[in-house]
Amino acid sequence: MSLQHYLVISSILFTLGIFAVLTRKNAISILMGIELILNSCNLNFVAFSRFVEPAKNIVGRDDYLLDGQIIAIFGIVLAAAEAAVFLAIILAIYREFGSIRPDEVDTLKG
Amino acid sequence: MVVPLISIILLAPLAAFTIFALFGLAKRSFPRQDILSTAAMLVALGCSLYLLNETSDPKPLTVEWLSLGSITLSMGFYLDSVTVIMLIVVTLVSSLVHIFSIGYMHGDPRYPRFFAFLSLFSFSMLFLVVSDNLLGIYIGWELVGLCSYLLIGFWFEKDSAANACKKAFLTTRVGDVGMFIGMMMLFKQFDTLSLYGTDGIFEAVRTLEAGQIAWLSAAGILIFCGAVGKSAQVPLHTWLPDAMEGPTPVSALIHAATMVAAGVYLVARMFPILTPSSSLVIAYVGGITAIVAATIAIVRFDIKRVLAYSTVSQLGFMMLALGAGSYVAGLFHLTTHAFFKALLFLGSGSVIHAFHAMHAHHDEEHADDNEDEHDNHSLVHEHGSEIPPDQDMRNMGGLRRKMPFTFFTMLIATLSISGVPFVFSGFWSKDAILGGVLERAMGWNSVHHYILFGVVLLAAGITAFYMFRLIFMTFFGEPRNQEMHDMAHESPWVMVVPLLILAALSLPVVNKWWFKEGYINKPYQAHVHEPTHAQLRPDSKTGDTNFGFSNFGISEAEAAEEEGGHDTEHADDAHHGHGPAHTIAMVLSIIVAGLGILLSWLFYHKRRFTAESVATTFRPVYTLFWNKYYFDEFYNGVLVALTVWKSRLFAKFDLSIIDGIVNGVATITRAIFAAFIGFFDNRVIDGIVNRVAKVIWSVGGRVRRIQTGAIQTYLFVVLGGIVLIILIFRVL
User: Fold this and answer.
1) Looking at the complex, does the CB of residue A16 fall below 8 Å from at least one CB of chain B?
2) Is residue A102 a part of any domain in this protein?
3) By residue range, what is the domain housing residue A54?
4) To bridge A63 with a disulfide, which of A46, A57, B231, B291 should be the other Cys (CB 3.0-4.6 Å)?
5) What's the pTM?
6) CA-to-CA distance for B402 and B508, rounded, in angstroms?
7) What is the dihedral of CA A17, A20, A26, A28, to 10 degrees?
8) What's the ipTM?
9) Of B709, B715, B719, which has the smallest distance from its Cβ to A106's Cβ?
10) CA of B718: which chain A residue's CA is closest?
11) CA distance B710 to chain A (A)
């Protein structure tokens, strides 16, 4: 499996995510789109990190960099936290407006 | 020791007032302001008594107050025997009036305020007394005037009281203007307002040349104008009888014993600058006041107004004494008068208090009448016809059984003021005045002083007459108004005790010790050349004593011993004691007092004659007395009317000419200038503003469409932007 396979998968995920975010009227669906975008990014990080040429250390052995993997873990944690906050906000909005459609929440509209 | 004592005397009443001013209004019923004020006065009284023997240093304190270039104004205390006597009189009468007021003012809605005002008054009066310079005296002078205004108008709901306090304030102000001009004349000449000491006015006056005496006389008379206003001398006496609208304790303290005596005190203080001509003016004003007020008092029926005119008359006696050079006699009469007149007023207050329940009753009845008087804006209050029923002597009579203490004490005061010989203080002080005037007449062979002696002798007789008229009408005979008589009762002890103390003070035994030989010395008058003792009376060395007080314990030897101690040339006139003038005066005064009392007895007790028939016989004279010599009518008809006429004239000038000019200018401005400005504003300024606003409005209207509020649209645009940027970079 070459790098391209990963990137193609990642692009499909990203495009699906963007599509969901732009077209869905339901806030939960938008959240799901955002999750897809985040996961496509994570996949990119891990893929690039895997195919980077390892450096030689002072005793001559390969020294793999794990930066991409670590950022992916951070991304997952971030996604979890973000989902929690987002769901809390949506819950509050639902209580206040009786709807979770962002275009119906327009109190600030002049 | 002296300075702290004087400070306590001044600060105690001031503190009582300040506490009221700070806390009294915040807390509507401040606890026990009466006790606070009374305690402050008693402390001041104690300190004053302690000062009695502390007069060795006359100038205990002088501080620089204000420096203007080369001129320095100083403030300070001056303490001599006269000051101490005034301090004791003021604090003593004030304390007793405070105590009396606890009973008299009980239940008044502004009870604490009354005591606070009394405290402020006491402070002002004491400040006036101890000041060593004209500025300090003037400050105290105006402060007592203010307190007088506040206390006369204490029941300001009554129109008559509101008018009376205005009248008192304005009338005394007329005299004060004269006093201020006099002060400024002295200041211009000597660059100082300090009276004593090496750089004081009195020292400077000695060196004036003969050519400046006329100027000095004018200054003296102008300063005396202040005393004319404050001490209610003719022609500015009309405010004092109207001041009786205030509560009776106020009449006793301010308008009988202390404030009105401040004028006499001022003249006594300024004694060294009085020249023969200004002295003569003072003597004549005093003499005329004595007789005019006494004759008016005969026909009054309001008990307080009788006493008010009596006060005016007695103040005339004091002025006459000072004008005739009888320095000690004037101050002596001031002291005795303060006690017995305060007693008479408090006694009348006690009588009024006895009728108080009736007073409230009648107030309701007359409420409608008062409504009609509201449109009377006349400054001079007419009082002849409308006497409050509880002050009308025609409603009294036979009260001696109902109010034994009040009757007894008032009788003592009446005997004193009438000049009943030997056991009452009034006799001695009045006799000292009569003797002093006659002595001046005989010594200088002065026709003026013979005339004045005759006038004052007549006034003394009339005094005895109208005072006993008051006593007979009030306390003797049968009750004239049975309903009111039944309600009358003796006053509570808190009012009776001050009466008893004042009655004791009306006996000479109590007064004499501060008038002992040489305690007060007549100040040196630089420009009055007294006839020497040798000219006056060859046997001057043997007869010296003090008003014949040797009867009461001071031996001739004692007197003679002290006589050696001071300069006989400038020794006091009163020390001439038993000269022929004094003997003649004493005999004559006993005769006129006896006649006055006898006539009064025949008229008002025995009813041998009736006052009505005499009044009918001498109708023009009676009318003149009844209308108070038409002073009020004159002031109302001439001065007030003139002021009103002048004000109308000025108002008309204002309305037609000044307003005309202003309105004309306004019209022209509006027609020409304003029209152009209006056009410019409307078209140019408003046009620019409106155009700018319209442009912004239309641009905003278009731009706001971009902001849809839908997040997904924004996101789409952002995405489009990114794609565009990527494409651009690809192409490049």
Assistant:
1) no
2) no
3) 3-97
4) A57
5) 0.71
6) 29
7) -20
8) 0.74
9) B709
10) A22
11) 6
